[in-house]
Amino acid sequence: MFSMKKVAAVTGAAAMLLSMGACGNKDNEAANGNVEIKFQTWNLKNDKYTPYFTSLISAYEKSHKGVTIKWIDQLSDNYEEKLSADAAANNLPDVLDANPSLMFGLAKAGALMDVGKEAPNASKNYYPNAWKAVTFSGKGITTAAYGFPWYVNDGPMYYNIELMKKCGLDPDKLPVTYDDYFADADTMVKSGCGAFMSTNTASDAADYASAGVQFMSKDKTEYTFNTPKAVAHLQRFIDLYNQKGIPPEALNAQWSQQGEFFQRGSIIAMGGSAYSAADFKQNSPDLYKNLAVGPKITDEGRSATVSYEMLAVNSQTKHKKEALDFAQFVTNSKNQLEFAKKSNTFPSSAGGLDDPYYKKIDTSDLQGKALAITLKEVQTGYSSRPPQFTDAAGSQYLQQQVALAMQGKQTAKQALDKTVDFANKKLK
Amino acid sequence: MNDTDISVGSRSEASVSGRVEPSMKKLEEGKPRKPKRSIGTILAPYLFSFPAFAIVFVFVVIAALNTFRLAFTDSTLLIPGKFVGFQNFVEVFHDEYFWTAMLNSTLYVVCVVPFMVILPLILANLVRGNSKIMGFFRTAFYTPVVMSAVVVGMIWTNLLDSKGLINSILETTRIIKHPIPFLTDRWLILFSAMFVTIWLGLGYYMVIYLTALANIDDALYEAASLDGAGPVRQFVSITMPGVRSTMVLIMMLSTIAAFRVFNEIYVLTNGTAGPGGEDITMSMLIQQQGTGIQARTGYASAISLIVLAVVGTMLIVQQIVQKRGED
């Protein structure tokens, strides 16, 4: 005879096993036979953007009977790890949001659809520079557009007016070129005001491209940023570091740390986004009143730091037609404009920048000035960072080698030669 | 009485009865009868332990075997590679960051382990007892153990930064003219991280020592006290020998943890492994190579196997030295 205790024990164990088995039992399709599209965004589910996406999805579902959109949002941190885990498990969402650097690895592994081939007329719906940013080429990858361009951003340089005055600089005459920038840095160092110019150490592709250095060959088969011009450019930063014009912490700081330096009044300038002004206004109102904005430092007369976000379609999606259609719906001119206005970013859809909203930007306050400067950058600038120059494939190595050069452990030429050699080996 | 005694007893009883049984049937009847067990009773322990075994099998055994397999391929996370023999190992030994990581991790073991073995023992000796004040100190020392790596990172970054609390105090009191580069100098980052590791681990190992100390007979201390032994002599002659096996255990645990250090360096350097990556450790190297969309899983697996071999060798050497010491 089974005692009640034993029956309960065996039932409990069996239930545990069954529940474990159920963990892996998934069915993406809605029970009623509808097509379900998984749409993944990157850190966009919050009070500011949730109403927009809810309304967007609702509008799409209403006009596309039988299609359900399941919106997933991933947190900002570890997004790459999340994408790579999903890709390795062949579990990528149908439509996903990321920047070209993250998308490149997925495209190279065949995880993303060639949308130029599947939607041959789509390219004309976007600005040429935006379409170029989502078109990947080079070693080990078939040249193709691996997603639809979404929102675009860049940003001005923010300056601490009080600190500038303290260091003998004129806030009404902000630097535009690198000559201006280093002249101001020289004045600042000589003043002995104890501040630093910025955390910029010339450890990013854009730092070289904006100084007129060709970062990569046109066919994307090799890196070319170890030219005498690039070495001379890096040397200027090394000299500034040695004159204590760059904080030592900049050598192992991530991009996000420059905001901390700026907010506590350690550095005079920082590169930001158009929406940084709104953040300053909300989080540091005193600092906001004490800020000036100017264009990004460049010798080329145009910004090299335009960043594009893109929506890609999973190459393994079971609902190719619906996924392609939804991705184009999200990135169409009307929806891009609405999102861009909410987020202080810019549309990549053709004609989007001609919208009356961008013709009448109120430049009487800092936010408006930042938006106006960024608009010009987006209109004329480009993305200089090749998508294949990822953290693992050279970007982090460049930062490390530059740091060693700043510390005097190697020359500027050695730092760039080593990085070019390292990054070229990763191109296969 | 053991099993042998029972069988002998059974035979004796048969002899006493005066009937020598020739047939097997009779012999079987004479054996003690096993109680009947239901199928549920037999299966229950296996069913209960199956989930744990399954988890260990999938996430430890299969993962370890897969790491071993991957180490000999040029796999990336998204592209299955092909067999490349020892190519990954050859590349590892030519990787400048591998040798930097090996040096840093080894230094970590050499510098941290002695403190991890001795300091918690001294601490445990000081806070043993049942008084409320001792309870407070035990809790206080254990608190860092339950802190998340992010919190620890924020605390120590704010303390050690060039404009952090420590530098500010030293500059205000005019002990130093320029800030000490705790977070920007290669060696100071490493030693700062070691300090954080010791600070974090003290409470954990202290608790293990407290358990071991509870097993030492108080009479030994009383006798030593009567013989005129002071606290230091008692500590060296009674406490340390009394917790010798625990010291060996902690030495092994802290050696493994120190060689695989990751969090402390990561949070103090914002994940960059210090200026120029000169503070990279073995675990950080594995993380850098083995994560992300372009992860080189084959290469990272080769480094993992080397770490396994090094840690294994360290433990074997420790065991040999320990045995010789006992002999």
Automatic annotation (TrEMBL), chain A:
Keyword Transcription: no
Taxonomic superkingdom: Bacteria
SUPFAM superfamilies in alphabetical order: Periplasmic binding protein-like II
Secretion signal span: 1-24
One GO molecular-function entry: maltose binding
Alphabetical list of Pfam families matching this protein: SBP_bac_1
GO biological process, one term: maltose transport
GO cellular component: ATP-binding cassette (ABC) transporter complex, substrate-binding subunit-containing
InterPro entries for this protein: SBP
UniProt keyword terms in alphabetical order: Signal, Transport
Family: Belongs to the bacterial solute-binding protein 1 family.
Protein name per the record: ABC transporter, solute-binding protein
Organism: Bifidobacterium bombi DSM 19703
Species classification: Bacteria, Bacillati, Actinomycetota, Actinomycetes, Bifidobacteriales
UniProtKB/TrEMBL annotation, chain B:
Bilayer disposition of the protein: Multi-pass membrane protein
CDD domains (UniProt xref): TM_PBP2
A cellular-component GO term for this protein: plasma membrane
Compartment annotation: Cell membrane
Segments crossing the lipid bilayer: 43-65, 107-127, 139-159, 187-207, 299-317
Polar residues biased stretches: 1-15
The protein, known as: ABC transporter, permease protein
